[in-house]
Design a protein that fits this description.
By secondary structure, this protein is mainly α. The chain has 2 domains: about 70-170, Serine Threonine Protein Phosphatase 5, Tetratricopeptide repeat (Alpha Horseshoe); about 175-293, Serine Threonine Protein Phosphatase 5, Tetratricopeptide repeat. About 70% of the residues lie in helices and about 0% in strands. The protein is elongated, with a radius of gyration of 30 Å. The N and C termini lie far apart (about 60 Å). It is a peripheral membrane protein. It comes from Amphiprion ocellaris (Clown anemonefish). It holds the Pfam family SNAP. Belongs to the SNAP family.
């Protein structure tokens, strides 16, 4: 319900009475209009000759629903405008023009308090920046805004999906501290969820790799912390790989590093992001050729 609607309900509802939904108020008004005079309710026995107050007898039943209906119609018009903008965006051959339409639709939905829909449109814009305009910084900004809106609506799962995109691209852009904070945040929000806790090890693994790129000691300390926070991480293949990589890095042994990666890849295929991060770590070994073959 819009803020203006809530304000009107507060102002015009009977003292001490709970705000009534628009549909209910309108229904009462229709029933009152349809009721014949003989069916009207008897006067209260405690005040048989007390005249009805004009403000309560006339304004509340008539004025309040009419205002609410007008506001509902205004919002309906705004939503139609937003939907037209979405349709226009679908027809645009130019990605930037489509983004302009989407941004206008977002403004309308945020004015209406429809933040979940606004978040979805921010994701659409982010995807255009990822795949068509290839502007990762702007894609990150829109994923972050979508995550904020989802959090405000307590849609934490949807917020985390957006944050993981931010973490993914932040690490690629060498914004490692930002990526670490996001992966830790999402891991901690999932590790206590019975349905999602097994994903936490992946997020702690990615945070550890970001630490490793920055500094070997940072990685060791982070891994110890993650084991304490999430004991299931201790027996994971990801942690076993990390410990082998740390040992190989300490010994400046690029062959042992590559062998550990190959062993892991034979069971769990490395994606492009993991391959990139592991190569960045391997390049810090002196005399390394810069590949994982």
């Amino acid at each position: 319900m819009d803020v203006e609607v809530e304000r009107l309900l507060f102002l015009f509802c009977p003292a001490g009475g709970a705000p009534k939904p628009l549909a209910l108020l309108g229904g009462r008004r229709r029933r009152a209009a349809a009721r014949p005079p003989s069916a009207s309710a008897p006067e209260s026995p405690s005040s048989p000759h007390r005249p009805a107050s004009p403000s309560t007898a006339e304004h509340r039943p008539v004025f309040l629903p009419s205002l609410l209906q007008r506001l509902a119609m205004d919002n309906s018009g705004k939503e139609k405008e937003a939907m037209q903008l979405m349709a226009d965006a679908d027809k645009k051959a130019d990605p930037q023009e489509a983004i302009n339409c989407l941004n206008q639709a977002i403004d309308i939905y945020t004015d209406m308090g429809r933040f979940t829909i606004a978040a979805k449109h921010h994701i659409t814009i982010a995807e255009i920046y990822e795949s068509e305009l290839v502007d990762i910084e702007k894609a990150i900004a829109h994923y972050e805004q979508a995550a904020d809106y989802y959090k405000g609506e307590e849609s934490n799962s949807s917020a985390n999906k957006c944050l993981l995109k931010v973490g993914h691209y932040s690490a690629q852009l060498e914004q490692y501290q930002k990526a670490i904070e996001i992966y830790e945040q999402v891991a901690m929000s999932t590790m206590d969820n019975p349905l999602l806790k097994y994903n936490a090890k992946e997020y702690f693994f990615k945070a550890s790799l970001c630490h490793f790129i920055v500094d070997e000691l940072n990685a060791k300390l982070a891994i110890e912390k993650y084991e304490e926070m999430f004991p299931a991480f201790t027996d994971s293949r990801e942690l076993k790989l990390l410990k082998k990589l740390l040992e190989a890095h300490e010994e400046q042994n690029s062959e042992a590093f590559t062998e550990a990666v190959k062993e892991f890849d034979s069971v769990s295929r490395l994606d492009q992001w993991l391959t990139t991060m592991l190569l960045r770590i391997k390049k810090t070994i002196q005399g390394d050729a810069g590949d994982l073959k």
